[in-house]
Specification:
Two copies of one chain form a homodimer.
Chain A: E1 5-13, E2 17-19, H1 34-42, H2 59-65, E3 71-77, H3 78-81, E4 106-110, E5 118-120, E6 123-128, H4 132-143, E7 147-150, H5 154-162, E8 168-174, E9 182-183, E10 195-201, E11 207-213
InterPro entries (chains A, B): DHFR-like_dom_sf (IPR024072), RibDG_C (IPR002734), Riboflavin_Biosynth_HTPR (IPR050765)
Domain Bacterial bifunctional deaminase-reductase C-terminal (chains A, B): 60-188
GO biological process, one term (chains A, B): riboflavin biosynthetic process
C-alpha cells in the first residue's frame, strides 16, 4: 500500500471558507467563529483535548478518532502555524498548541521564511520554502511508510489539489455562512471529475464530505 | 479511560437476524447469504482480506478500518468459531479463518465444551465455560488496557446486552430479509432506553446503527 496524502477533519462553512479574514493572535480563524464551526468535533468522546470521560460515540466520533490512524507526518501552511506575516521578528512563537501539540509526528510548515526546526513533546516542526511536490517527498520520507496528513489551511489544500497530489479528503461542512475569507471551494462538486464523493449528513448538523481518487 | 466492551461491524438483516438456520461447514451463516450481507464491507479499501490496492474510501471504509483500533481481545460464541455442536470429537478444527485469523489478539470462545488453547499466527484462542461477566474480566486482563471486542453471534451479543455489559455497538443493517435464524432484535429501538442511537444510511445500501451508553 502506497503512502497516501490525506486531508482529515478539515472544516469549512456552508459557503466554502476554512477561515475568515483578519487572523490574529486572539482569533486563529479570523472572523470565523471556531465554536460554531468545530462544535461537532469537540462534542465527541475522542476529541484530543477532552479531559473527562464523556462525549458522543456516534458518527462524528469515527472522524475524530481517525485523525491519527496511520499518520506519520503533517504538512501545513504558515497561517495554520501562526498569525505572523513576512520575515520572523524572533523565534519565540511555537504554534497555537501549547507544550503538547496534537500532532505527535514531524510537521512541515510551508513558508517563504524558514527558521530552525524545534521540538515540543513528540512533535517536531520543520520550516521549508519549496513547492508542494517537494515538501510531500520530505514528509513521506519522515513518515516512514505511514500516510501524510495535509492539515490546511484552505489555501494550502488548494495548492495541493491544483498539483493533483491529494489522495483522500474529509471535509466537514458546518451549517454557518461567512461571506469572505480563505476559500476551499465554491462547491464540492468542483472535484467530482477527479474524485469519488460521498456526502454524509451527521445528526450533529455538519455534513461530512468524503473524497477519494477515481 | 476505562476498557470498553465494543460490538464492531456486526451485520444483521433488515428483520434483525445475524445468521440463518442450518449452519454448516459450507455455510457459516446458514441460510443467510453472506455475499448479500457483507458486500458493503468487502467493497472497502480497508477490508482485511483485500489483496489489491482498490476499494472505496467513503463512509463504509471508516467502519472497516476501525475494526482493530484499540482492541486488545475478542469474545465470541462457539457458533462463530465453528459449526460443531456438543462435545468435540477431536481438536482438528481451528476456526474458519485459515492460518492467519483477522483478530491479532487473544480470542475467548464461550462454550460448554472447553478444549486446550492454541495459537495461529498472532491470534490465540482460549475456550471458556463461564458467564458473560467472568469471561469479560478475563478478556479485559488479556487486553492489557485496550478495549474488548464482542464478536457475536447474535445470541452471544444478546447475552451480554441482557447482562448490561455492552458499552458501544456498531450494527450494519443490510437491505435483505431472512425470516428466521439467530435474532439480535425485533427492532433497534428496543435499546433506546439504555443507549444513544444514531442511524446513518450509507450510499452502499446498508444502514449503520451506532449505540453508546446513556
Amino acid at each position: 500500500m502506497s503512502q497516501l496524502l490525506r486531508v482529515q477533519n478539515f472544516n469549512v462553512t456552508r459557503d466554502g471558507f476554512g477561515a475568515g479574514e483578519n487572523q490574529s493572535l486572539e482569533r486563529p480563524f479570523g472572523d470565523a467563529d471556531p465554536g460554531a464551526m468545530f462544535a461537532w468535533a469537540g462534542a465527541t468522546a475522542s476529541w484530543p483535548a477532552r479531559t473527562d470521560s464523556g462525549g458522543s460515540r456516534g458518527l462524528d466520533d469515527y472522524f475524530t478518532r481517525d485523525f491519527t490512524r496511520n499518520i506519520g507526518a503533517e504538512i501545513m501552511g504558515r497561517n495554520k502555524f501562526g498569525p505572523q506575516r513576512g520575515p520572523w521578528r524572533d523565534h519565540d512563537w511555537r504554534g497555537w498548541w501549547g507544550d503538547e501539540p496534537p500532532f505527535h509526528t514531524p510537521v512541515f510548515v510551508l513558508t517563504h521564511h524558514p527558521r530552525p526546526s524545534f521540538t515540543l513533546a513528540d512533535t517536531t516542526f520543520h520550516f521549508v520554502d519549496t513547492d508542494p511536490a517537494s515538501v510531500l517527498d520530505q514528509a513521506r520520507e519522515a513518515a516512514q511508510g505511514k500516510d501524510v496528513r495535509l492539515g490546511g489551511g484552505a489555501t494550502t489544500i488548494r495548492q495541493f489539489l491544483d498539483a493533483d497530489l491529494v489522495d483522500t479528503m474529509h471535509v466537514a461542512v458546518s451549517p454557518v455562512e461567512l461571506g469572505s475569507g480563505s476559500r476551499l471551494w465554491e462547491s464540492p462538486d468542483e472535484l467530482r471529475d477527479r474524485f469519488h464523493l460521498e456526502v454524509v449528513p451527521s445528526p450533529s448538523g455538519v455534513v461530512h464530505h468524503l473524497f477519494w481518487r477515481k
